[in-house]
Specification:
The chain is of the alpha/beta class. The chain has 17 helices and 19 strands. It has 2 domains: 285 residues, Alpha-Beta Barrel (TIM Barrel), CATH 3.20.20.140; 94 residues, no CATH class. The protein has a 6-stranded parallel β-sheet. The protein has a 4-stranded mixed β-sheet with strand order 3-2-1-4, with no helix packed on it. The protein is globular and about 75 Å long.
Length: 495
């Protein structure tokens, strides 16, 4: 790449220090010179006017673009927000390592993207990603669920000692190759089977390479405090230095009062605990997570197969009716139904059920029977006030919890956070009184430091030339549940 220069009246270098005017020179994709002062732009310089701030490319602290980026390298929903980097492989789900035990399952899970999973480990996966010409750079965690399944498949609850040792060695290989850390998804299969000794052993492998563990807690609602305490205990036993709590929330009105417990965890003095949030009052995940036990511990491929059996479906239907009250379905919004249920997308299940002339419970199971692997829903059960308090905490950074997508809905529908979370976070922090340079630090260098990313996150010589040009007055989100793929305004990404 030829030499390029950016001339700006306001530069935020990611450190949180004062804005300054200057000129940045990049050569072959790396920052080689930063000059302070007033400069007149040459004809081929990039110029940012007085309303714009040049910042390091924003980082999404929690993404799921592992496979979607291969299908949609433009990643419009994220790049339009100025996001140029993402921490991927979250919630226990990464597309590596692959063995005969998990490859076919993951191929089916990602079927909609039409991507052949022809790699084996972190190195070969990243070679495939880096061959794309897209603007979004991934830093991939190794997912515990994928890792466990690579050794023992998706149904084995208790690992043998030999399997546990093999899993730790396989993890250490991924970390040595450059994986950013280990992610747990303890709500999902097979991570939900992991006991304390298994988690501690894996954390020891991570600690041995001085990397980070992230966790989608086993419960973010009724057992939130117990889930946090469990992970803190495991981390301390393992000698882990850094623990990151994914998409912090207090799910369910009956749990809104538990925010202080999260705050105490973030302020642990013997362990660096950080977290990420998305600035919405609705979570989104697989529709199948609200299945009653024991069906909640089955993977989605197995769920689809079981629910095609009318006798089993009748049994599950009764369990669902016993567990969920009628009002519950007023807060469950179908995001991805697919197939014959696509027409009900963006509808709450109580409304969709009326249109389908079914009960909400019957519709719920019908969707899963046809398309459990792709069916997702938004759950409007979060506290906006708690979210705002978490956003203001110095150990919390923005993470979309979404895949990179384009405006087209060819590969499924996004939660609006995938097209607007960073812009919404920026606006919220401005309303809270934070200075522009402080917010930019939270969206760049602070995330880079949490995940030990030395190449990005700051405008410094020797780092990658990845920039966001931000109009601080126009930067805003436009995506809604009715129009979730509407692009954010006020930012442009330069890489």
């Amino acid at each position: 790449m030829s030499v390029r220069r950016i001339v700006a009246r306001r530069i935020a270098d990611g450190s949180g220090g004062d804005l300054f005017s200057g000129r940045i020179t990049a050569d072959n994709g790396m920052i080689v010179k930063i000059e302070r002062g007033s400069f007149s732009p040459a004809a081929d310089d990039i110029f940012a006017d007085e309303n714009e701030v040049v910042a390091p490319a924003f980082i999404d602290a929690h993404g799921h673009s592992d496979i979607s980026l291969l299908a949609m390298p433009e990643a419009e929903g994220k790049t339009a927000q100025g996001i140029g980097c993402e921490i991927s492989g979250n919630c226990g789900l990464s597309p590596f390592p692959l063995t005969e035990h998990n490859r076919s399952h993951l191929q089916e899970l990602y079927f909609r993207y039409g991507i052949r999973l022809d790699w084996t480990d972190f190195n070969t996966y990243m070679q495939r990603v880096n061959n794309q010409a897209g603007k979004l750079k991934l830093f991939a965690l190794t997912g515990h669920n994928t890792l466990r399944a690579a050794v023992a498949g998706y149904s084995q609850k208790q690992l043998t000692r030999t399997q546990l040792v093999a899993m730790c060695r396989l993890l250490e290989q991924q970390l040595a190759q450059g994986s950013a850390g280990l992610s747990f998804g303890l709500l999902y299969t097979p991570g939900c089977f992991a006991d304390e000794p298994e988690i501690v052993e894996l954390m020891r492998s991570v600690a041995g390479q001085d990397k980070i563990c992230t966790v989608h807690l086993k419960s973010e609602g009724d057992k939130l405090t117990e889930s946090i305490d469990f992970m803190l205990s495991c981390a301390r036993r393992a000698g882990l230095k850094k623990l990151h709590l994914s998409h912090l929330k207090t799910a369910g009105k009956q749990n809104f009062h538990k925010l202080p417990h999260i705050l105490r965890a973030l302020e642990s003095c013997d362990l660096r605990v950080t977290g990420d949030i998305y600035c919405y009052d609705a979570a989104m995940t697989q529709l199948s997570v609200i299945l009653p036990a024991p069906f909640d511990s089955y993977d989605d491929v197995k769920v689809m197969a079981l629910l095609k059996d009318e006798k089993i479906r009748a049994e599950v239907l009764q369990l669902v009716r016993n567990e969920r009250c009628a009002e519950y379905w007023q807060n469950v919004r179908l995001i991805n139904g697919g197939g014959s249920f696509e027409k009900y997308e963006n509808m709450f299940l109580d409304q969709a059920a009326k249109a389908a002339q079914l009960s909400p419970e019957e519709l719920f199971l019908a969707i899963l029977a046809e398309n459990s692997v792709a069916a997702t829903a938004a759950f409007h059960t979060l506290s906006g006030k708690n979210m705002q308090l978490l956003a203001a905490h110095p150990s919390v950074v923005p993470g979309s919890d979404e895949s990179a997508r384009n405006r087209s809905r060819e590969y499924g529908v996004s939660h609006p956070r995938g097209f607007g979370n960073h812009a919404r976070y920026f606006r919220l922090r401005r309303e809270q009184g934070a200075e522009v340079q402080t917010i930019i630090r939270e969206m760049t260098l602070q995330i880079a430091e949490i995940f030990a990313l030395e190449q990005v996150g700051a405008i410094q010589t020797g780092r990658q030339a990845r920039f966001t040009v931000l109009d601080t007055e126009k930067y805003s989100d436009n995506a809604t549940f009715a129009d979730p793929h509407k692009l954010a305004a006020g930012a442009r990404l330069i890489v």
